[in-house]
Amino acid sequence: MPSPVIRCRRCKTPRPPVSSGACSRCAEDGVYCDAWEPYDPAPPKRAPAGLAVRSLRGAARGDVRDFGGPLSDVLGGVELGRKILVGGQKGVGKSTVVAELAARMGEALRGAIYWLDREMDVAQVKALFLRSGSLTERVRWVGPDPDVPTDRPVLWRDALPAIGNDAAVVVVDSLQRWTASDKDRTDLLSAIKKLPCTVVVISHANKKGEVEGRSADQHDCDAVVIVKKRKILADKCRWTPTPREVRRPVFHVDSPSKKAATSS
Questions:
Q1: Rounded to the nearest 10 degrees, what angle do helices 122-131 and 94-109 cross at?
Q2: Cβ distance 227 to 97 under 8 Å?
Q3: DSSP labels for 204-256?
């Protein structure tokens, strides 16, 4: 039988095979200790079933692509398959910014754009894309059918199964309109994590301009963006360092009086 391993009874340091006498580590502490005891090394721990332990060496980074436009710029590109939370106050243009990014992603990835909306109808969503100068051929609107009256509201649990396998990006407009409680919002954000495509969730903002709702909503998403009138801020992003800020383009429109004076 192999001889048992010997360790110091005081500090548990193993004794070298050819060593004898006092423990060298205890001596460094100014303590004389020559008491040794046998012990059996603990067997190596094994990860339980379902848990993986892997080295980061050779691990590939996600597919990050630059689609252009202010929303892609502030995120340093979009890592495909991630979940992005975009907040902003009413009327600031957050849906227009999202529509621009969604259209660019749909064209670049040759996939469909699924726009889940309980407030705007098909015509309003189309106007939203046209406002940003975006194409609409790939847009699929998902929402309550005005031609089919029902005795209950259409829920997000009804809308998610309508998303096809051809989806390049899914837009949920908005988080508050599709949910009725904090738990419902948590369930929705958990459900979209299972979608393989990129998902952009639009959220209302509070009076401070921050994303409305619990901080857990922001934690459940991979990136958090705040849209303001003159700039766009990225407060969180799992693939790009934050905070980041980009300026929004300003569109100048000539007044009728200026046009008349120019023509005359």
A1: 80
A2: yes
A3: -B-TTSSBSS-HHHHHTSSEEEEE-SSEEEEEEESSS-S-EEEEPP------H
DSSP secondary structure letter of residue 134: -
d(CA 121, CA 221): 27
Q: pLDDT tens digits for 144-190?
A: 998 888 778 899 999 999 999 999 999 999 999 999 999 999 999 99
CA distance 109 to 167: 9
Q: Which CATH superfamily is domain 64-247 in?
A: P-loop containing nucleotide triphosphate hydrolases (3.40.50.300)
Q: Look up residue 258 and give its two tokens.
A: 């200026």
Whether this prediction's pTM lies above 0.70 is answered by yes
Q: How far apart are CA 7 and CA 10, in angstroms?
A: 9
Identify the three-state secondary structure at position 188. helix
Both tokens of 162, joined, read: 């309508």
Residue 261: which H helix or E strand, with range?
helix 256-263
Q: Which residues contact 177 (CB under 8 A, 6 or more apart)?
A: 118, 119
Residue type, 142: V
Whether the CB-CB separation of 253 and 247 falls below 8 Å is answered with no
* Residue pLDDT, tens place only, 198-238: 999 999 988 887 888 888 899 999 999 999 999 999 999 99
Q: CB–CB of 234/75 below 8 Å? A: yes
β-strands 112-117, 83-87 pairing: unpaired
CA atoms of 78 and 143, how far apart (whole Å): 26
Delimit the domains of the chain by residue range.
5-39, 64-247
